Amino acid sequence: MGDTGTGKNALSLHVLVADDDFFMQRLATILLNSLGHTGVVVDDGEKALAALAKRRFDLVLMDIMMPNMDGLQALASLRKQEQVNGRHQRVIMVTGHAEPTDRARLSAAGADGYVSKPLEIDALERELRRVMSWHPHE
């Protein structure tokens, strides 16, 4: 597997961005594009699950706090579906209320990774690399 950043041997990821904030949607897609990845945007957990039912994504970048169905509810539903279908969708959770215990709490909830808002390109790239190397690209 190549790097997840830009470059000759880069792995271009197709990422589902689930966030209800327009600014964060734009920021996430701009950062992903600058790293050589593509992004599709939805604004709540229900729409994220619907998008995942229709097509495959390499990774989901999911905000914790969204209307209708929040990110943790969507993650729990996704992990429950995976017990039936045998697949594993990589999910990086995103939160604006970063706490020291977030990584352990989100990992226990089934998240593969975690980044805090506001998104920063270096932190996002590090977490993308870590999560994609932890789970070999399928």
UniProtKB/TrEMBL annotation:
Show where the Response regulatory domain sits.
14-132
Claim: Chloroplast is one of the keywords in the record: no
- How is this protein named in the record? Response regulator
Q: Which SUPFAM superfamilies match?
A: CheY-like
4-aspartylphosphate PTM sites in chain numbering? 63
The record, for PANTHER family, names: HISTIDINE KINASE, HYBRID SIGNAL TRANSDUCTION HISTIDINE KINASE J
Which Pfam families does the UniProt record give? Response_reg
Keywords carried by this UniProt record: Phosphoprotein
Report the source organism.
Undibacterium umbellatum
Which residues are in coiled coils?
none
